[in-house]
Amino acid sequence: MSVLKRVQQWATFARIWHIYDAAWQNPFESAAVIKKHLMGLYKPIYHPMNDCGDHVIVVNSAEIALPGDEWKKRVYFHHTGYPGGATWTLAWELHEKDPTMILKKAVYNSMDGNLQRRHTMQRLHIFPDANVPTDMLRNVSNQIRQLRAVPRRLDKYTEEEINQFPKIYDYPKDYILK
């Protein structure tokens, strides 16, 4: 076997570290993309009982965006196992308690309920902000592209960019803005 073929074979079986920025992203659409990398669905050697998935680091999970009024209407169920231990938590309450939990549950539910799901979830590393340990960042070799573009906030534009923007209407000098 040639050296090139050995490297290709090693790269196919090796676990790659990916990073994904979840800021302003829908967690349920993001979960489908993250699942492909966690389970190794994009690899040619994939098989449902073959553990060939990669590590995925998700940053800025505190800044996810749910569509519409899902913050108020989406409910998460938990049961302690004891009689009367059922609880239903709204998405905004769960997000306040733990900003990583909504994305974690979305990825977990997007995977089929096979025997390796819990083991595969151990390779998912979610952080509520951009503070990631440096030993993890050293391993990252790929960035997963965001599904939608992140809009710029109005306070992030410079004064020069605001002045260059074409105006639709010029107010008279004696007009008072409220």
Task: Give an account of the 3D structure.
With 178 residues, the chain is α/β, with parallel strands linked by helices. It is built from eight helices and six strands; from the N terminus they run αβαβαββαααβαβα. The strands form two sheets. Strands 5-2-1-6 form a four-stranded parallel sheet, covered by helices on one side. The chain has a two-stranded antiparallel sheet with strand order 3-4. A hairpin with a 6-residue loop joins strand 3 and strand 4 (86-90). Helix 2 crosses helix 5 (101-110). The radius of gyration is 22 Å and the shape is flat.
Number of strands: 6
* Mean pLDDT over the full residue set: 92
Strand order of the largest sheet: 5-2-1-6
- Radius of gyration, whole Å: 22 Å
* Low-pLDDT residue intervals, each spanning 5 or more residues: none
Helix content: 25-40%
Q: Roughly how many Å apart are the termini?
A: 76 Å
The number of helices is: 8
Shape: flat
- The succession of helices and strands, N to C, reads HEHEHEEHHHEHEH
Structural class: alpha/beta
Major pleated sheet: 4 strands, parallel
How much of the sequence lies in strands comes to: 15-25%
Keywords:
alpha/beta, two-stranded antiparallel sheet, 178 residues, flat, four-stranded parallel β-sheet, 8 helices, 15% strand
Task: Map the helices and strands.
Blueprint lengths: L2 H11 L3 E5 L5 H13 L15 E5 L10 H4 L1 E5 L6 E5 H7 L3 H10 L6 H5 L2 E3 L7 H4 L2 E4 L15 H6 L14
Parallel strand pairs: 1-2, 1-6, 2-5
Antiparallel strand pairs: 3-4
Helix pairs in contact: 2-5
Question: How is this structure best summarized?
Answer:
Helix content is 34%, strand content 15%. The chain is built from 8 helices and 6 strands.
